[in-house]
Design a protein that fits this description.
alpha/beta; 6 strands; binds guanosine-5'-diphosphate
Length: about 170
Protein backbone atom coordinates (compact mmCIF):
# COMPACT_ATOMS: atom_id res chain seq x y z
CA UNK A 1 0.00 0.00 0.00
CA UNK A 2 1.39 3.37 -0.89
CA UNK A 3 0.27 6.54 0.78
CA UNK A 4 0.59 9.84 -0.99
CA UNK A 5 0.79 12.85 1.24
CA UNK A 6 -0.65 15.93 -0.29
CA UNK A 7 0.44 19.47 0.37
CA UNK A 8 -2.08 22.11 1.20
CA UNK A 9 -1.46 25.74 0.47
CA UNK A 10 -3.52 28.68 1.62
CA UNK A 11 -3.21 31.96 -0.24
CA UNK A 12 -4.91 35.23 0.54
CA UNK A 13 -5.88 37.08 -2.62
CA UNK A 14 -7.41 40.55 -2.77
CA UNK A 15 -10.14 41.47 -5.24
CA UNK A 16 -9.90 45.17 -6.01
CA UNK A 17 -11.72 47.65 -8.23
CA UNK A 18 -14.35 50.37 -8.44
CA UNK A 19 -17.91 49.85 -7.34
CA UNK A 20 -19.98 48.13 -10.00
CA UNK A 21 -17.16 46.68 -12.12
CA UNK A 22 -18.22 43.15 -11.18
CA UNK A 23 -15.94 42.09 -8.32
CA UNK A 24 -18.59 40.15 -6.42
CA UNK A 25 -19.91 38.65 -9.65
CA UNK A 26 -16.43 37.46 -10.62
CA UNK A 27 -15.93 35.88 -7.19
CA UNK A 28 -19.42 34.33 -7.35
CA UNK A 29 -18.68 32.85 -10.78
CA UNK A 30 -15.26 31.59 -9.75
CA UNK A 31 -16.30 30.06 -6.44
CA UNK A 32 -19.96 29.12 -6.92
CA UNK A 33 -20.04 28.75 -10.72
CA UNK A 34 -23.03 30.97 -11.12
CA UNK A 35 -24.09 34.49 -12.01
CA UNK A 36 -26.91 36.22 -10.25
CA UNK A 37 -28.03 39.61 -11.54
CA UNK A 38 -29.87 40.35 -8.32
CA UNK A 39 -27.09 39.33 -5.95
CA UNK A 40 -26.06 42.25 -3.78
CA UNK A 41 -22.76 42.19 -2.05
CA UNK A 42 -22.48 43.29 1.52
CA UNK A 43 -20.64 46.50 2.27
CA UNK A 44 -17.08 46.13 3.39
CA UNK A 45 -14.78 43.19 3.30
CA UNK A 46 -16.29 39.89 2.42
CA UNK A 47 -14.37 36.76 1.70
CA UNK A 48 -14.93 33.56 -0.17
CA UNK A 49 -12.96 30.33 -0.32
CA UNK A 50 -12.03 28.53 -3.52
CA UNK A 51 -10.46 25.09 -3.35
CA UNK A 52 -8.37 23.91 -6.28
CA UNK A 53 -6.95 20.44 -6.86
CA UNK A 54 -3.80 21.92 -8.31
CA UNK A 55 -2.05 18.66 -9.05
CA UNK A 56 -2.25 15.14 -7.57
CA UNK A 57 -0.06 16.27 -4.71
CA UNK A 58 -1.23 19.79 -4.07
CA UNK A 59 -4.46 21.36 -2.89
CA UNK A 60 -4.62 25.14 -3.10
CA UNK A 61 -7.10 27.09 -1.03
CA UNK A 62 -7.64 30.65 -2.15
CA UNK A 63 -9.08 33.07 0.33
CA UNK A 64 -10.59 35.78 -1.87
CA UNK A 65 -11.04 39.10 -0.12
CA UNK A 66 -13.55 41.29 -1.88
CA UNK A 67 -12.65 44.80 -0.88
CA UNK A 68 -15.75 47.01 -0.78
CA UNK A 69 -16.22 49.06 -3.93
CA UNK A 70 -15.98 52.29 -2.02
CA UNK A 71 -12.32 51.62 -1.36
CA UNK A 72 -9.98 52.59 -4.11
CA UNK A 73 -6.53 51.12 -4.40
CA UNK A 74 -4.81 54.31 -3.32
CA UNK A 75 -6.93 54.64 -0.18
CA UNK A 76 -6.61 51.07 0.76
CA UNK A 77 -5.36 50.48 4.19
CA UNK A 78 -2.18 48.49 4.37
CA UNK A 79 -3.93 46.02 6.62
CA UNK A 80 -5.69 44.49 3.60
CA UNK A 81 -2.37 43.86 1.96
CA UNK A 82 -0.97 42.18 5.03
CA UNK A 83 -0.06 38.63 4.11
CA UNK A 84 -1.85 38.89 0.77
CA UNK A 85 -0.08 36.78 -1.82
CA UNK A 86 -1.77 38.22 -4.88
CA UNK A 87 -4.45 40.52 -6.22
CA UNK A 88 -7.13 40.45 -8.87
CA UNK A 89 -7.85 43.95 -10.09
CA UNK A 90 -11.13 44.28 -11.93
CA UNK A 91 -12.36 47.06 -14.19
CA UNK A 92 -15.35 47.44 -16.48
CA UNK A 93 -14.32 47.25 -20.11
CA UNK A 94 -17.25 49.50 -21.10
CA UNK A 95 -16.18 52.23 -18.67
CA UNK A 96 -12.59 53.37 -19.14
CA UNK A 97 -12.65 55.55 -16.03
CA UNK A 98 -12.73 52.39 -13.91
CA UNK A 99 -9.28 51.53 -15.24
CA UNK A 100 -7.82 54.58 -13.50
CA UNK A 101 -8.36 52.96 -10.10
CA UNK A 102 -5.99 50.24 -11.26
CA UNK A 103 -3.14 52.52 -12.21
CA UNK A 104 -1.29 52.80 -8.95
CA UNK A 105 1.10 49.92 -9.35
CA UNK A 106 0.82 46.68 -7.48
CA UNK A 107 2.89 45.79 -4.43
CA UNK A 108 2.00 42.11 -4.88
CA UNK A 109 1.57 39.77 -7.89
CA UNK A 110 -1.55 41.00 -9.66
CA UNK A 111 -3.68 40.14 -12.65
CA UNK A 112 -5.94 42.63 -14.42
CA UNK A 113 -9.47 41.66 -15.48
CA UNK A 114 -11.21 43.63 -18.21
CA UNK A 115 -14.66 42.48 -17.14
CA UNK A 116 -18.08 42.56 -18.88
CA UNK A 117 -16.56 41.64 -22.26
CA UNK A 118 -19.97 40.20 -23.19
CA UNK A 119 -21.34 43.72 -23.52
CA UNK A 120 -21.36 45.55 -26.84
CA UNK A 121 -19.86 48.73 -25.35
CA UNK A 122 -16.45 47.04 -25.28
CA UNK A 123 -13.81 49.66 -26.08
CA UNK A 124 -11.39 48.25 -28.71
CA UNK A 125 -8.82 51.03 -28.33
CA UNK A 126 -8.79 50.44 -24.60
CA UNK A 127 -8.18 46.72 -25.09
CA UNK A 128 -5.27 47.48 -27.44
CA UNK A 129 -3.63 49.60 -24.75
CA UNK A 130 -3.74 46.92 -22.05
CA UNK A 131 -0.38 45.30 -22.81
CA UNK A 132 1.48 48.54 -22.20
CA UNK A 133 -0.81 49.45 -19.29
CA UNK A 134 0.14 46.19 -17.57
CA UNK A 135 3.81 46.78 -18.21
CA UNK A 136 3.64 50.32 -16.79
CA UNK A 137 1.65 49.29 -13.73
CA UNK A 138 3.39 46.04 -12.85
CA UNK A 139 0.59 43.64 -13.70
CA UNK A 140 1.60 40.09 -14.58
CA UNK A 141 -1.02 39.97 -17.31
CA UNK A 142 -4.61 40.71 -18.24
CA UNK A 143 -7.70 38.85 -19.38
CA UNK A 144 -10.94 39.93 -20.98
CA UNK A 145 -13.55 38.33 -18.74
CA UNK A 146 -17.26 37.95 -18.32
CA UNK A 147 -18.70 36.81 -15.02
CA UNK A 148 -22.05 36.66 -16.79
CA UNK A 149 -21.05 34.39 -19.69
CA UNK A 150 -18.24 32.61 -17.83
CA UNK A 151 -15.38 33.79 -20.01
CA UNK A 152 -11.75 33.52 -18.82
CA UNK A 153 -12.53 33.62 -15.09
CA UNK A 154 -11.12 30.15 -14.42
CA UNK A 155 -8.13 30.88 -16.71
CA UNK A 156 -7.31 34.14 -14.95
CA UNK A 157 -7.49 32.42 -11.55
CA UNK A 158 -5.20 29.62 -12.67
CA UNK A 159 -2.76 32.14 -14.15
CA UNK A 160 -2.53 34.05 -10.86
CA UNK A 161 -2.18 30.88 -8.78
CA UNK A 162 0.65 29.73 -11.04
CA UNK A 163 2.47 33.02 -10.49
CA UNK A 164 1.92 32.86 -6.74
CA UNK A 165 3.24 29.28 -6.64
CA UNK A 166 6.38 30.48 -8.42
CA UNK A 167 7.14 33.05 -5.71
CA UNK A 168 6.00 30.84 -2.83
P1 LIG B 1 -18.94 45.08 -7.62
O1 LIG B 1 -19.54 46.31 -7.00
O2 LIG B 1 -17.62 45.39 -8.24
O3 LIG B 1 -18.88 43.92 -6.68
O4 LIG B 1 -19.89 44.67 -8.84
P2 LIG B 1 -21.07 43.60 -8.91
O5 LIG B 1 -20.53 42.24 -8.96
O6 LIG B 1 -22.09 43.91 -7.86
O7 LIG B 1 -21.68 43.92 -10.36
C1 LIG B 1 -22.20 45.19 -10.68
C2 LIG B 1 -23.22 45.03 -11.80
O8 LIG B 1 -22.59 44.57 -12.99
C3 LIG B 1 -24.32 44.01 -11.48
O9 LIG B 1 -25.52 44.48 -12.01
C4 LIG B 1 -23.85 42.76 -12.20
O10 LIG B 1 -24.94 41.93 -12.55
C5 LIG B 1 -23.16 43.35 -13.43
N1 LIG B 1 -22.07 42.48 -13.96
C6 LIG B 1 -21.04 41.95 -13.26
N2 LIG B 1 -20.24 41.23 -14.07
C7 LIG B 1 -20.79 41.30 -15.31
C8 LIG B 1 -20.41 40.76 -16.58
O11 LIG B 1 -19.40 40.05 -16.76
N3 LIG B 1 -21.22 41.08 -17.65
C9 LIG B 1 -22.33 41.86 -17.51
N4 LIG B 1 -23.05 42.11 -18.59
N5 LIG B 1 -22.71 42.39 -16.32
C10 LIG B 1 -21.94 42.11 -15.24
Amino acid sequence: ISVTLSTEKLFKVLVIGDLGVGKSSVVMRYVNKRFDETYKASIGVDFALKTIEWDPKTVVRLQLWDIGGQERVKNMSRVYYKEAMGAVVVFDITNSSTLEAASDGQPIPAVLLANKCDLTGRDGALVSSLDSFCKDNSFLGWFETSAKDDINIEEAGAFLVKQIMLCD
